[in-house]
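Late entry, evening session. Most of the bench is empty. Finally got around to the prediction I had been postponing all week. Sequence below, unchanged from the version circulated by S.P.
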Amino acid sequence: MDKIAVIMSVYNGDLPQNVELAIDSILNQRYKNYKLFIMIDGPVAQNILMILRKYEQEPAIEIYSRDINKGLATSLNELIDIIKSKNDYNFIARMDSDDESLPDRFCEQINYLQKAPHIDVVGSFCHEFGAEFALDIKRVPLEHEELKKYTLYKCPFIHPTVMFRISVFNDAQIRYPTNTKLSEDLALWFLLLSRGYKFANIDKVLLNYRIDDATLSRRSGVKKAFSEMNIRFLYSLKMKNFSVFIYSLILIRGVLALCPLKLKKIVYKKFR
């Protein structure tokens, strides 16, 4: 039976009840051949530690920690290296500390990857919750060629829904880029595309995705806008897929990151 390693980072900005929901949603998966690897990224509040201590004796969970906050990309990379060293896993699944995986998520993704051996990374749709601008179903393209084009102006995956074949990380250079702290997932997708890896999404909701004002704030600001535009421009040139239309879409995405929160809420509700 194929074995899944699930990677999740916890930091001081997390809420304990959200962390508990996320962990329990993994423990409640119908597919049972997995282990959840958690990295505590720097000092966290006592109430978060109390939640995590509840799971210390859980055989399906391994918890690691460090004294210094180094960010999401570094946390995920360290967990990937730990998992690779064990030589015991077929797939790596992402999970965020404030979302909820639905019980059939792993069953659906394992089944898909077994039937599609040419696909290296698979995600899914999600249900958003937590804000008036949340979407009942957030959809993304399904097939690789469409996702390859889509990535130039939008993110091809809902990050916490993805599952990778472990072989993706056989090359030690394939890790979350740490020089793009505001856009590490986007940078990884472009890196994988440039190396020829294949993407897909499952047309089912497999995760409840928390979205609120804080989510939009993290996607805002000058640094975020320029980080994403720089990555998209760079890879559009590298992939020899550039045009006035593509550049216009990239600029529009950059401008959106600079918009006031109220306007961004309207855009998120009406035009996603």
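Two things to note before I forget:
The first strand starts at residue 4 and ends at 10.
The two ends are 38 Å apart (CA to CA).
Will write this up properly tomorrow.
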